[in-house]
UniProtKB/TrEMBL annotation:
It comes from Micromonospora arida. Residues 38-57, 292-322 are annotated as: Disordered. Residues 292-311 have a biased composition (Low complexity). This is Heavy metal-binding domain-containing protein. Residues 38-54 have a biased composition (Basic and acidic residues).
């Protein structure tokens, strides 16, 4: 009886979306995965040409390097999946990364509903977790893991939860947000194809928080999802607890490299008071309001040159008020 509800739910949702009642494993094989192929162009334009730039961002593929993410039937209050290995059998051995063998991240296609959870592995290779899919919608689920003996991978799969869908507009870019009584501010902006420093600063009741607790081996864990295709980006913390230089707040710094211009949603998980909180930001990489585009290595000539003296009225250059 446990599977019937969920199965029926999937069938309804999939029929609505795809006009078919394929099993979910079938449908996910058809997930659109090609679009991101060209995203490396932005990185190339900046002069970067390492192998990272030539590879797809994470999360766009349901199957990569022989490993495939396969959701399995589960009760409605549970999410379950397997990773099929190169031999077709469920993978049962994983390395620990960021304190866990498996990180499951979910978000709706409109970038709402973000959750980052840690499923339990059964001996047969099935991962299970209380469902993080909080209501109806088109969800993307990302499995971030390292199979023992293999490379780290992030595979992604679409999951439909049927019901009334209310598309949420992406919140406007902002440099400050509040969550659970905390205020988190963001300094720095991602630049396509290069590593950028992003610093998130946590305060509460106007006071800086200086006793953040380690979470997943860091004082913060940052995931970025690209609007449009939900490309998934690891954003690595700059420094780890106990390294002699990294303080437990109020500032947590990350090194981010986004593969293209565009809008991204950032999700910062941090722990304080024994609880994990998630602060979200929308950021725009590339075309900034002041029109400053990333330039290739070397110094590009400035279009405006030195300002003429003599007080001639040239109007207001650019768009900003800075
Ligand atoms: Cu995790």
């Amino acid at each position: 009886m446990r599977t019937v509800t969920r199965l029926a739910g999937f069938a309804v949702g999939l029929a609505a979306v795809f006009g078919t009642t394929y099993g979910i494993g079938r449908v996910v094989d058809r997930a659109p995965v090609v679009e991101g192929r060209h995203d490396g162009d932005a990185a190339h334009a900046t002069g970067e040409h390492d192998e990272t730039a030539d590879r797809l961002p994470g999360g766009l593929l349901v199957s990569d390097r022989g490993y495939t993410l396969e959701p399995v039937d589960a009760p409605a209050d549970e999410f379950a999946f397997r990773i099929a290995g190169p031999d077709g059998q469920p993978v049962t051995r994983y390395d620990v990364a960021h304190d866990k063998q498996m990180h499951l991240i979910v978000a709706r296609r409109d970038l709402s509903g973000f959750r980052h959870v840690h499923p339990e592995l059964a001996p047969d290779g099935t991962w299970r977790v209380d469902t993080p899919l909080a209501g109806p919608g088109q969800w993307r689920a990302f499995a971030d893991f390292t199979p023992t003996g293999g490379e780290s991978l992030t595979l992604g799969v679409d999951v439909t939860v049927p019901g009334e869908l209310t598309e949420r507009p992406l919140p406007a870019p902002a440099t400050s947000t509040t969550v659970d009584g905390y205020t988190v501010t963001l300094t720095g902006a991602p630049q396509p194809g290069r590593t950028s420093s992003l610093t998130l600063t946590v305060s509460r009741d106007g006071q800086p928080v200086t006793d953040l607790e380690p979470y997943l081996g860091a004082y913060g864990h940052l995931v970025a999802l690209r609007r449009g295709d939900l490309a998934y980006l690891h954003v690595h913390p700059d420094g780890t607890p106990g390294d002699g230089r990294t303080r437990p707040g109020p500032a947590v710094t990350f090194l981010a490299e986004v593969p293209s211009a565009g809008s991204y949603r950032l999700y910062l998980d941090f722990q304080h008071g024994g609880r994990v909180h998630t602060a979200e930001f929308t950021v725009v990489a590339g075309a900034t309001p002041t029109g400053v585009a990333p330039t290739p290595t070397g110094v590009a000539p400035t279009p405006s040159g030195p300002a003429p003296t003599g007080g001639a009225d040239h109007g207001t250059p650019g768009h900003g008020h800075n």
